[in-house]
Amino acid sequence: MTEITSKGLHEKTGQVLDRARQGERFRVVRGGQPDAFLIPPSDAVDPEWKEIMAEVWAAQEQVGPTRPNPVLLERKARRYAARVR
Asked: pTM here?
């Protein structure tokens, strides 16, 4: 991985982006500390949807029986009563 300063990136943006497009990876440094990473577009950054939702789906399976929403039950009862009149 190539280190480049933020000033160097500012001055040579086009060249750095061309090199990144060809597969080179950069660590952008500002004030001596890593500030960002610049990676080629072919590198997968975003996780798959299954990976994102795995924890949510597991939690949904562990939930016990749900109880009915009292507000919805009341609305249903009122609509029924209005139709009977």
From this structure: 0.52
For residue 84, the one-letter residue type is V
The stretch 47-52 carries a mean pLDDT of 86
- Token pair for residue 55? 């924890």
Which domains are seen in the chain, by residue range?
A: 2-38 (3.40.1620)
Cα–Cα distance measured from residue 9 to residue 27, given in angstroms and rounded to the nearest whole number: 10
Distances (CA, A) of 47 to 18, 21, 23, 72: 25, 21, 20, 37
DSSP per-residue letters across 50-68? HHHHHHHHHHHHH--PPPP
- Tell me the mean pLDDT in the region 1-5: 94
Find the distance separating the first CA and the last CA of the chain, reported in whole Å. 76
